[in-house]
Amino acid sequence: MDFYHRAGLILDALDNKKGSVKGLCMAEANKGRKVGEGARFLKVVIECLKYRPHIQHLLAATKLLAQEPTLFVPPSSTASVTNALKSGSAASANKALKTPKKHVKAAPTPDSLATVMLHDLLFAKRGLTLPKEHKVRKKLEKYKSALEKENEREKRRRKVGTNEGLQIPLPDKVASSLEGIGKGKKRAHDVDRFAEEGGSEGIIGEIRWMRVNTLRWSVEAAVEWFEKGGWEMFEEVEEMLAAAQSKPKVFALDAHIEPLLALPAAVSLPTISAYQDGRLLAQDKASCMPAWVLLTPALADAEDRAAARAAGEIGPDEDLPKRGKGLRVLDATAAPGNKTTMAAALIAGDEINGKVTACERDQGRFKVLKDMLKRADAKNVQPMNVDFLSLKPDDPKLKNVTHLLVDPSCSGSGIPSRLDHLIPSAPEAEQLARIKALSNFQMAIVSHALRFSGAVRVVYSTCSIWEQEDERVVMRVLAKKEFRDMGWRLAPRDEVMPTWERRGRVAACGGDETIADSVVRCLPEDGTNGFFVACFVKDENAPPIEAPAGADEAAPAVDDEAIDVDALAVEVEEGEAPAAPAAAAAAASAKSAPAQLKKGGKQGRKAKSGATMAARNAKSEVLGRAPAPPAAQVAAAAAAVVAKEADAAPKEGGAGSGPKKLSKKQLYLAKKEEMKRKKEAAATSGADE
Ligand SMILES: C[S@@+](CC[C@H](N)C(=O)[O-])C[C@H]1O[C@@H](n2cnc3c(N)ncnc32)[C@H](O)[C@@H]1O
Question: Is the ipTM of this complex over 0.90?
């Protein structure tokens, strides 16, 4: 009965807009820590939501709740007293009152509990999972034939042949992304992880994004592993998608983010052993952007240093950070840990010797974060179950924190697979009030990050498509004299995914095109979740920037200091969304999609990184391709620098000479290309003969 109560509680929480389907199922499962429970809740709750209007009809038609007022009232709960009193049953109210306090548990409403139980009674293959002698079961069985009769009547009335016809239909893509939940389990806890990640993370439209966890593996090893397993690699995601029509085992390297691979969405995660053991992680491309943007300059510097060391220009240990003196990242809002583990992977290793401090306020989600750290083998992360806002930005222990990730709770309006259409939406005014409250909360979190004494780079991101949570938060920051006086400004486009075409909305930036161009937007038509990324950089030596025109106008007239963040605590869980106000949603998706997946959208890191750009050019070279147009435009300046550097470099043989040392990946690609050429040559000569 406990499972039914808890599933009923999830339905109640959904009715009260306390979170997303997935978020609430996982939160409830985390309370019990029973392996596989998250997936079980998710499956049952989704099924109940699909049947809910029909079950409501059955309850009304059979008058079940009125005839059995205490049947769905759990005895040992305070709520049971209220519910029992409401139902008019003195006996059950008395019983509830006598229950000792220590056993008091939250109780689902009779309506939600009845929905879950009727679902199992009528529609689940296994039927009700209660012992045959259980009182509730015995009573419900008495109503079964009346309920089934009404069910058949309803099928005839609605002209549907099967029970499935009585459900609220799910869009194909959403339905297929949920199909694998609970199936193909190798180890029982994989089922929960799959439920957590499989529904939304990593799978967008036709693509399943997988990040190579470089804490456990390398991109080269991953490529080799896939190819050995009979998978064909494609240079471009679009080509891979075209090939996927006829071949299931295809993959591509992402054009913008190095450790990212694209696979066809139809690929089943539980069948990929490298996913099972944490060498591959399911993570949407957009969700990889914040850590990438935060750390690319540091990575480029590290590559420069490594190249100089390899060339003998600096000593083997020179410029290496001393023990404990590496880069310090703070992830302000970390669970479930996608961005934390990515940041940890990017800065691991001697050259950067980086560490991440990961804050998570929510206890249940903190457990999820710790699981993820274990799975990713992220030993360079210190997780803290703490409210980020309670940390002192001038705490001497945190003075080495230079880079911060700020990915606060948001409306989640950018996530297409959230099943929002299964839940009745709140009135528009209520939705707008919630978005405004979220925007204030986000402003409070990002403001707190900017106050950290050592901070020089702060990336702000949301999986929302609403301007109030995106550009307008940025505009509020830029409007604040306090931050401008500290030297904060927006990082320019060439540091923030320069070759990603979809940028911020100009109107939301008070008409300032430079600001809009400095930030990144993503939409599902780009092959990602809806997402937003902005990067603030501090330059204490440069004169403070001016407040941008329109900044005050764009800023809601709410003082971010006066927010009761705790009051929002439940409302702002990850991925929780008010349904999109229709007009805004339509406007967002009507915007034409840039060709993000097209050839050559290569992400240039910092232009000054000759080594990094050289790596990219070399990759194009070994594959026998000229850089394709969009990348070429943006990378032209950087490529020129590289070409100049290459020209200026002493020729082979001299000290520190020769072409830049090829990275493992370049070597791998070169080797591969050579083999391909040999094969082709052999084939051609054979044909010639
Ligand atoms: C959008 S999620 C973060 C997702 C995460 N960055 C990732 O990529 O996996 C926001 C998280 O912030 C947490 N959170 C919200 N307010 C917080 C606060 N004041 N301090 C610490 N964590 C907070 C929420 O509990 C939630 O887990």
Answer: yes
Among 281, 289, 356, 360, say which to mutate for ligand 1: greatest number of ligand atoms within 8 Å of CB.
Answer: 360
Give bridge partners of residue 328 from the DSSP assignment. Answer: 355, 401
Residues labelled as active-site residues: 463
Q: What is the Å distance from ligand 1's center to 39 Cα?
A: 22
SS3 252: strand
Q: Are 622 and 512 in contact (CB under 8 A)?
A: no
Residue 633 shares a structural domain with residue 577: no
Which pLDDT value is given to residue 584?
A: 38
Whether residue 181 is found in the same domain as residue 117: no
Mean pLDDT of 288-305: 95
Nearest-angstrom CA–CA distance, 157 and 151: 10
**624/493 same-domain check:** no
12 is in an annotated binding site: no
Q: Is 431 in the pocket of ligand 1 (CB under 6 A)?
A: no
The answer on whether 387 is annotated among ligand-binding residues is yes
**Going by CA atoms, what residue is nearest to atom 12 of ligand 1?**
333
pLDDT above 70 for 96: no
**Pairing assessment for the beta strands 457-462 and 260-264 based on DSSP bridges:** unpaired
**For ligand 1, what atom is nearest to the CA of residue 463?**
1
Query: What's the pLDDT score for residue 265?
Result: 85
Specify the number of domains making up the chain.
4
pLDDT of 237 reads: 92
Q: Which residue has the tokens 């090893």?
A: 221
**pLDDT tens-digit map of 320-347:** 887 768 999 999 999 999 999 999 999 9
Instruction: Check whether residue 413 and residue 272 sit in a common domain.
Output: no
Best residue among 338, 369, 372, 409 to mutate for probing ligand 1's pocket (most ligand atoms within 8 Å of CB) is 409
Q: Categorize the per-residue pLDDT at 355 as very low, low, confident or very high, splitting at 50, 70 and 90.
A: very high
In this structure, is residue 483 part of a structural domain?
yes
Task: Kindly give, in sequence order, each residue whose CB lies less than 8 Å from that of residue 431, ignoring residues fewer than 6 positions away.
Answer: 425, 578, 579, 581
Indicate which atom in ligand 1 lies nearest the CA of residue 575.
1
What is the CB-side half-sphere exposure of residue 630 using CA atoms within 13 A? 18
Residue 590 has pLDDT above 50, yes or no: no
Alpha carbon distance 434, 63 (integer Å): 36
Tokens of 569: 């605590």
Q: Ligand 1 mean position to 600 CA, how many Å?
A: 34
| Confidence at residue 434, expressed as pLDDT on a 0 to 100 scale | 84
Of residues 261 and 313, which shows the higher confidence score? 261
Mutation test residue for ligand 1: of 333, 407, 445, the one with most atoms within 8 Å of CB:
333
What letter does residue 19 receive in the DSSP assignment?
S
Q: How far is CA 20 from CA 82, 340, 493, 571, in A?
A: 27, 22, 33, 10
Are residues 181 and 159 both part of a single domain?
no
| Amino acid identity at 67 | Q
Residue 522 Cβ contacting ligand 1 at under 6 Å: no
Ligand 1 centroid to Cα of residue 459, in Å, is 14
Q: What is the span of the domain harbouring residue 522?
A: 287-317+333-349+406-443+455-590
pLDDT for 91 beyond 50: yes
Q: Same domain for 158 and 210?
A: no
CATH number at residue 570: 3.40.50
Q: Residue 152 domain-assigned?
A: yes
Residue 338 in contact with ligand 1 by CB distance below 6 A: yes
Compute, in angstroms, the gap from residue 418 CA to the centroid of ligand 1: 18
pLDDT one-digit tens code per residue, 133-181: 888 898 899 999 999 999 999 999 999 999 989 988 776 656 655 655 5
Give CA torsion, residues 341, 347, 348, 354, to 10 deg.
-100
Q: If you take atom 6 of ligand 1, which residue's CA is the nearest one?
A: 334
Q: Whose CA is nearest to atom 2 of ligand 1?
A: 574
pLDDT tens digit sequence for 424-468: 666 677 778 888 999 999 999 999 999 999 999 999 999 999 999
Q: Is residue 377 part of a domain?
A: no
pLDDT digits (tens, 9 = 90+) for 650-663: 333 333 333 344 45
- Identify whether 355 is part of a domain: no
689 is in an annotated binding site: no
Q: Based on the domain organization, do 179 and 272 belong to the same domain?
A: yes
Q: Give the pLDDT of residue 431.
A: 76
Asked whether residue 114 falls in the same domain as residue 217, the answer is: no
User: 360 alpha carbon to ligand 1 midpoint, in Å?
Assistant: 6
Verify whether ligand 1 is closer than 6 Å to residue 569 (CB atom).
no
